From TrEMBL:
Protein name according to UniProt: DUF2809 domain-containing protein
Segments traversing the membrane: 12-30, 36-54, 61-78, 104-122
Domain of life (superkingdom): Bacteria
Keyword Transmembrane assigned: yes
Pfam families (UniProt xref): DUF2809
Keywords attached to this entry: Membrane, Transmembrane, Transmembrane helix
Length: 123
């Protein structure tokens, strides 16, 4: 059973990645930064958020986050936001509206980076 337990050592990196993601969204950086690096950072963002509040293993967290990201991307392939007639800008941003196989690559790279950080820091 998962327990909810606040862990500051994961919440601070979550906040830092969140600030980066917001900056990428607001300042409209180069297409590579906004379109690819922003997708890479989504995985650490969600990973640190889950680890900050849930007692869940490193590997399980990566699998959950990566699975979630892949599912959202696959739903974009099937135009879920159009099917559900979503008019909320926030929901459209979260769900996205354009499938791109490069996003799957970006998510995988984000998961790999998180795994490397875990191995190097051996938490």
């Amino acid at each position: 059973m998962m327990k909810v337990l606040f862990k500051k050592r994961y919440f601070i990196p979550f906040l830092l990645v969140l600030v980066c993601e917001i900056a990428i969204a607001i300042f409209h950086f180069h297409r590579f930064v906004r379109g690819f690096l922003g997708d890479v950072l989504v995985i650490p963002l969600l990973y640190f958020l889950l680890r900050a509040f849930l007692t869940i293993t490193h590997k399980s967290t990566i699998y959950v986050v990566l699975g979630f990201a892949f599912i959202v991307e696959i739903l974009q392939l099937f135009k879920l936001s159009e099917i559900m007639n979503i008019n909320s800008e926030v929901l459209e941003t979260i769900l996205g509206n354009t499938f791109d196989w490069k996003d799957l690559l970006a998510y995988g790279l984000g998961a790999f980076c998180i795994h490397l950080v875990h191995v190097v820091t051996a938490d």
